Amino acid sequence: MFTPDEILERVIPFQFLARAQRARLAKRLELRRYRAGEYLLRAGERSRDVFLLGEGEVDCVDDREPPIVLSTIVAGHYFGERAALFDAPREVSIRARGDVAAYTLPGKDFLELVDTEPVFAQALANTLKVKQGIFLPYQRLYGRLLSLLEQREFLLSALIPAYRTLCPALHPLLEDERIDTDALAYAVARLPEGVTRTTFYYLTTDLPPLYSEPDSKFEAVHTKARRRAAWECMPSKLLILLRDGVSDISDFLTCLCLYAVEARKIRHRLRDGEVLRELKRLCEEPDPQAAERLIARLDLSPAEREGLRRIWPNDLARRLRDILLHHEDVALECDMQIDNYNSRASEVWVSQIREEAARLCDLEDPELEVHIISSNTHSVANCLSAYLGEHAEEILAWGRAQRPELTGEPVDERPWGAGWRDPRDLVYALARHYFAENPAARAEYEASEAHARRHLSSTAFTGIEVDLIDARKLDPARADPRVRVRRPRRPLLVVNVDYAFGQQAEEILANLLFVFGRRVASVNVLGKAGGLVGARGDVLLPPATLLQTNDELYPVPNRDLSGDLLRSLIPDRRVHEGPVLTVAGTLLQDRTLLHFYRRIWSCVGLEMEGSYFARQLTSAIETGVVRPEVRSRFVYYVSDVPLDPEENLSEALAPWEGVPPLYAVTRAVLRRIFAEHDEAGGRGA
């Protein structure tokens, strides 16, 4: 029989601990003995102990009748770590084959080793990946997706089995007979509006000559929560222009798989000739009351019924009829180069940026300082806007009268609205509505901003808007006071690029760095991310990004962007520091993988672009395209928490939840940009 010291010295990853640490750990092990046929663990238990087998053998058993022995574990090995590591019930039962002696380590002690001992954690990671294959479902789906793209023409049904094996964290009811309306809402918002009746998708990275200038030939089709360039070529056939190699297509296809799985549940639940007849009549002769009476009679739970109403509030009867007739029969043709971004489109885009920037400042000026920001363009523009500062009280008064549901009730300490700590946040939240209802004010705003800012609208080929801002022409007195804008004496250009999507980020940043070269003083990435810790509205400050496809870690020093600064700007939210995971697609993540990256790599969040930005910046520094002292600042706010079982992932942040952290990270980055300029000797009067 192995002693505690012997088994810890023998077993990976425990053998990589220091001898003194193994000795301390040995004292915490508890010896347990079992007779032949006794169960050490039962499938479904929520226990968290980790077992090290000191003597005898145990069987891993599937308890279905008749029980099936899946494998046998012999003395000198450990088991049970997955329940502790992934916060999951026991997957199989463990039964003694004969007399057995096992040492148990409390799950909390095991997790403490994972959290505090990097060598232990990485050795464990290798075991989980190589020997236990926790990445196999992800690899099967990703590999199947790539192989289908190589075929060029395929049916969606060829991808769905691989999707089912993954069990994405965003699709918790995938194998449940209940309709997962939250997951369905997530997918529908990221698919073209015609998804319920489309049977053929033509996906391409470059429009063929026949389809050039598609807006003049086809009807554009909107996608609510993704910038997808899509057109209806004919009934049931959509043309979709992809902007990058794999990120966009993997996101699209996995959302389509989710939709197909849930549509099939709906179809099987409602399959009835009389229901189909009534739905046809309602589509031909709309009658809201009759539609409600029919939907109330359908075989749906109250939660399912309400969830479907939220997804399709205005035409649920027609959508249900589409689903009953569609049968998820979808064919796709993909005309794309997997590893290439559309270079011709990017060249045109970069030329436009160069031309507009040259109108603001001399690009050959040796004193020119360029700061690149990837964020939504409105948060940066709003913080630097003189118009919004000058008209803040007017906009707040309008909001109290016209948008009381957004402002909330005034109180003595917050007369602008009880739910808003900073009145400027409320001004920014109201501005879009204010300008929509006051065209003259919008025209005045645009005219007042034009001298300092050039705006490039997005195109179908990039989907990216750009603001070019000459900081010398800003009005520090009327800009957001918490940014602390100073008018620079030397030329300072802010290049604010709207969010790229996935791999597109690498090509976008590369072209910007080529344009501005050694004039670039900083690269700043800010936006939203899924949180692996904390709550919605919290802030993530990563020292590095981790690219999931190859587990490469890219440092992002954030040397002058501190947690203390962020906490001072948003004191009622938490700031979490740790790597962020760059994923190939949000629906390519199951709960096991997310727990793996949270525990093994201490990741605090996940997003889709950070590693591509960081990798390109590292390459540009190494090749001399930019100066080695260029600053990097990466900061995110949490938009959802996929590991929280109570999280409604399809529900967007309310303005009072999402606006404050967005503007906190924007102010932090802008404050450091102006402070950096001052420190470099460009302080204005």
List keywords for this structure.
Jelly Rolls, six-stranded mixed beta sheet, globular, 25 helices, 19% strand, Rossmann fold, alpha/beta, 685 residues, single chain, twelve-stranded mixed beta sheet
- Rg calculated over all Cα atoms: 28 Å
Portion in beta strands = 15-25%
Strands, count: 26
Amount of helix: 40-55%
Largest pleated sheet: 12 strands, mixed
Can you give the mean pLDDT?
A: 92
Unreliable parts: 338-342
Span of the ends, CA to CA: 79 Å
Q: Which class do the helix and strand fractions yield?
A: alpha/beta
Enumerate how many helices there are, as a single number. Answer: 25
What characteristic shape results from the CA principal axes? globular
